[in-house]
Amino acid sequence: MPIISQFYGIIVSMYFNDTDKHHLPHIHIQYAEFRCTFDFNGNILSGSIPNKQKKLVEAWIEIRKEDLVTLWNMLQSGNGTFTIAPLK
Fold it and tell me: pTM here?
């Protein structure tokens, strides 16, 4: 699973061809011992994360939504990958 961004101890990853469980575009978040999955609207699909980090991820998704959609489409079609700028 490629890491696509990292900020404030939060690791953001996106799997290749990962539509079996959630059936929609999403990212995987890791923060300390917490793991969760967010859709591109900032909704948690599974798992949990502390509220402060949840707000950071939601803000990052809002800012980088276009990049996320582009990367998701590239990964699903096998056309490469790229990293996305972190939240500053």
Answer: 0.91
Residue 64, exposed/middle/buried by CB under 10 A (0-12, 13-18, 19+)? buried
Q: Which helix (H) or strand (E) holds 70?
A: helix 51-77
d(CA 57, CA 60) in angstroms, rounded, equals 5
Token pair 């949840």: residue: 54
List own/partner pairs for 54-63 with CB under 8 A and 24 or more apart: 56/7, 56/8, 56/10, 56/87, 57/10, 57/12, 57/29, 59/87, 60/5, 60/7, 60/12, 60/86, 60/87, 61/27, 63/87
What's the rounded Cα separation, in Å, for the pair 88 and 86? Answer: 6
- Provide the residue count of the chain: 88
Identify the segments of the chain with pLDDT beneath 50.
none
- Non-local (6+) Cβ contacts of 71 within 8 A are 4, 14, 81, 82, 84
